[in-house]
């Protein structure tokens, strides 16, 4: 038994678990909700239109009147009035939605907490199409364009569709090769030599590369969408926050695989050095 192989075993197992959690976070309401890519805060979406003296839409006018009556409640929840949710959190395979409790707006005595009410079905090659999702939920008779939904947000989210698909595929390859890397490390517990170190080095470097591309794509999508939403959404009460937990988890998994690659590189060179000094005497390598 080569007990030094325990180090890459532990590291690859941790990287594998982390990348699986990145993939399957949000698979049911509340499950690893904090590991989302980003959260859209729609709790005040439409407040500008609803509170405007006269809008072109009858439905919006009547909602406006009922919300106005509610005005004493500091944070009258416009989202509920127009039938949408307070927030939409995006995950790799699905999205979750829910309401902020006790209220969407923080004050001195309470901070908003997410209460997830449902998550969409997990689908491969998932892409979060906010425009379609919101339009579908909106109260009959209200149109997103009436809420002055910015076209820049729509375009930005649409532009991320291809990147989302690439991200999913690379995550799958990265997670699979991380699993292979774990199996390779297990095998080397019984057969650690230069060849096994070399094979393991190649597999873990490839896993590291895939997780790096996946993490970079995810980070790019997150930064881009959050930037666009916050630049164009403030006026209509729309905002977005980055999922820093997710970003931390995905890069940690990648960093672990980089570490594993260095471990195998070290074993490979160590093996070669020992081979050069021991082989003439006919001793076993390592
Ligand atoms: C803070 O918000 C909560 C929930 O909306 C409310 O019950 C509470 O009275 C508010 N406190 C202050 C100081 O405004
Ligand atoms: C949600 O957005 C509203 C309006 O932009 C903001 O006042 C509120 O603090 C946000 N709530 C959370 C929990 O981010
Ligand atoms: C969360 O939502 C569910 C269903 O709407 C509700 O029953 C529950 O009381 C809520 N939890 C909190 C803490 O408000």
Automatic annotation (TrEMBL):
Pfam families: SUR7 (PF06687)
Recorded superkingdom: Eukaryota
Transmembrane regions: 168-192, 199-226, 246-269
InterPro entries assigned: SUR7/Rim9-like_fungi, SUR7_domain
Annotated keywords: Membrane, Transmembrane, Transmembrane helix
PANTHER family in alphabetical order: CELL MEMBRANE PROTEIN YLR413W-RELATED, SUR7 PROTEIN
Protein name as catalogued: Sur7 protein
Species of origin: Stereocaulon virgatum
């Amino acid at each position: 038994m080569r007990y030094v192989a325990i180090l890459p075993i532990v590291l690859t197992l941790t990287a594998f678990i982390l990348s699986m959690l990145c993939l399957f976070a949000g698979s049911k309401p509340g499950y690893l909700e904090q590991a989302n890519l980003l959260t859209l805060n729609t709790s005040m979406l439409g407040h500008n239109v609803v509170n405007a003296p006269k809008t072109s839409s009858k439905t919006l006018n009547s909602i406006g009147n009922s919300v106005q009556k509610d005005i004493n409640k500091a944070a009258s929840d416009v989202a509920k009035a127009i039938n949408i949710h307070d927030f939409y959190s995006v995950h790799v395979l699905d999205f979750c939605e829910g309401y902020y409790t006790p209220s969407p707006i923080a004050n001195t005595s309470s901070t908003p907490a997410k209460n997830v009410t449902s998550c969409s079905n997990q689908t491969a090659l998932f892409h979060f199409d906010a425009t379609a999702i919101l339009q579908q939920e909106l109260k009959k008779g209200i149109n997103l364009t009436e809420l002055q939904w910015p076209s820049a947000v729509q375009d930005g989210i649409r532009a991320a569709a291809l990147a989302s698909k690439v991200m999913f595929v690379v995550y799958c390859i990265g997670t699979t090769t991380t699993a292979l890397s774990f199996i390779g490390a297990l095998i080397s517990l019984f057969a650690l030599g230069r060849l096994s170190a070399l094979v393991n080095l190649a597999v873990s470097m490839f896993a590291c590369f895939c997780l790096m591309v996946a993490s970079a794509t995810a980070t790019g999508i997150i930064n881009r969408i959050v930037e666009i939403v916050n630049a164009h959404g403030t006026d209509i009460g729309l905002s977005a926050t980055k999922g820093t937990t997710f970003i931390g988890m995905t890069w940690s998994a990648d960093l672990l695989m980089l570490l594993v690659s260095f471990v195998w590189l070290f074993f490979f060179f160590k093996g070669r050095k020992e081979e050069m000094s021991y082989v003439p005497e006919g001793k076993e390598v390592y």
